[in-house]
């Protein structure tokens, strides 16, 4: 298998710690052209999905297709099945040592032991995104975030709602989102990745991305490459944000009014906006 020029001439993407859009591309059998198209999209991170992205009967062939593509000069993440399934070991056997594996997204992570068992099967230093999708996962998220090898946390929103019976109302889901954000920060990880907007719910994309942003999440899973540019834009500092941050720092550097305990946090927030803009090439 060879990698097409479409895949090699892709735009520069940010480091995974800054990735805003995580496109879940089904790891379909003989899917090289689809994988190339995903790489050429606006998504920051491409995740070849050999878990829920495939019917059970297609998983063996999809696993082979993904492994061959990652051995032919291309790079991507792979979402693998949960530790509790027999497919987990088969997934790792297929992709763990392919040269193009950027990292692994572990489905249905529910403990630090899940991270440890998976990390032990991967080359040292391979980043792991823990996909938390259940009540048990939320209750264990601090342990998961602190487990060696865990690089970032993602919210498996659909399965979490199925497990708990919660609605998609942002007020209802504020608690699990806050748990993910706080656990990530306490463990020194990049902010978490929120769940996706469904393909047939594109009209809610901007609103749902704003919810993720206000919750302190800095990325989103993505099921439709057409959603990527909107997510990237809304999870990045705008020109107005950058200008306001610069004016805030200038004002604080030459104070003309009261200088009190609010200055430190205000300065830090403004500086964080400028730092992120610089890392994303927006300044």
From TrEMBL:
Domain (HpcH/HpaI aldolase/citrate lyase): residue spans on this chain: 38-225
GO MF annotation, one: catalytic activity
Cofactor(s) in the UniProt record: Mg(2+)
Signal peptide: none
The keyword Metal-binding is annotated on this UniProt entry: yes
Residues that hold Mg(2+) according to the record: 133, 159
Biological process, per Gene Ontology: oxaloacetate metabolic process
Keyword terms, alphabetized: Magnesium, Metal-binding
Binding-site positions, substrate: 79, 133
InterPro entries per the UniProt record, alphabetical: Aldolase/citrate-lyase_domain, Citrate_lyase_beta/mcl1/mcl2, Pyrv/PenolPyrv_kinase-like_dom, Pyrv_kinase-like_dom_sf
Pfam families, per the entry: HpcH_HpaI
Keyword Secreted appears in the UniProt entry: no
Gene3D superfamilies on file: Phosphoenolpyruvate-binding domains
Full protein name: Aldolase
């Amino acid at each position: 298998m060879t990698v097409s020029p479409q895949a090699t001439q892709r735009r520069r993407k940010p480091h995974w710690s800054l990735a805003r859009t995580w496109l879940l591309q089904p790891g379909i059998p003989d899917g090289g052209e689809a994988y190339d198209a995903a790489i050429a999209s606006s998504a920051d991170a491409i995740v070849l999905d050999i878990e829920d992205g495939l019917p059970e009967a297609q998983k063996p062939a999809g696993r082979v297709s993904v492994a061959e593509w990652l051995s032919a000069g291309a790079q991507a993440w792979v979402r693998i099945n949960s530790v509790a399934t027999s497919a987990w070991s088969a997934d790792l056997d297929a992709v763990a040592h392919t040269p193009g594996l950027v990292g692994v997204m572990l489905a249905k992570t529910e403990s630090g032991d899940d991270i440890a068992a998976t990390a032990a099967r991967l080359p040292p230093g391979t980043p792991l995104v823990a996909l938390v999708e259940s009540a048990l996962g939320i209750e264990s998220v601090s342990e998961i975030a602190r487990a060696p090898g865990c690089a970032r946390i993602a919210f498996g929103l659909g399965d979490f709602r199925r497990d708990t019976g919660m609605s998609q109302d942002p007020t209802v889901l504020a608690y699990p989102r806050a748990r993910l954000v706080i656990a990530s920060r306490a463990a020194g990880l990049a902010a978490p990745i929120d769940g996706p907007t469904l393909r047939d719910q594109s009209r809610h994309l901007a609103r749902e991305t704003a919810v993720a942003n206000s919750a302190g999440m800095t990325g989103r899973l993505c099921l439709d490459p057409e959603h990527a540019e909107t997510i990237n834009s809304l999870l990045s500092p705008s020109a107005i944000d950058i200008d306001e941050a610069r004016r805030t720092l200038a004002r604080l550097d030459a104070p003309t009014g009261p200088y009190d305990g609010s200055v430190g946090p205000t300065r830090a927030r403004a500086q964080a906006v400028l730092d992120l803009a610089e890392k994303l090439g927006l300044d």
